[in-house]
Amino acid sequence: MAVMTTCLWFATQAEEAAEFYCSVFPDSRVLAVDTSPVDTPGPKAGDVLTVEFELDGRPFIALNGGSDPEYTDAISLEIRCADQAEIDHYWNGLLAGGGREVQCGWLIDRFGVRWQVAPQSLYDLWRGEDRESAARAFAVMMDMVKLDVAAIEAAAAGTDA
């Protein structure tokens, strides 16, 4: 069976990025650091070409492509969190070293990669049968930067946080 792996392109920071992500996600590790066998438009022979790593058991590859990638909001990595403590952990961890907050649970890390950090409970509300509750939760979420689980749940219930 084929294995699907997310490949993240970096100018020259593949190893730094992989180590950074592994420091944020539990049960994560660098599996292999491969060097370029020949001079390329990116790395020269002997420089790091790719880094294989796992984030919480999911496979990733970081590639040194030699030019800065232009990441956009069209592709993001989503983290569905169990509670506010998890949201805070990933939010703060991924912003470390120069990331920036966006809106609605989105952030851009210091390498330019887009992330969504959201509670699973928000998706559960959206999928529920109470459409008014879902609409209230969605409306309050739209005004947030980092998502606040208590405020979302209070809005869904029709009460103040």
Automatic annotation (TrEMBL):
CDD domains tied to this protein: PhnB_like
Gene3D superfamilies documented for this protein: 2,3-Dihydroxybiphenyl 1,2-Dioxygenase, domain 1
Domain PhnB-like: from-to ranges: 4-117
Pfam families: 3-dmu-9_3-mt
Name of this protein: VOC family protein
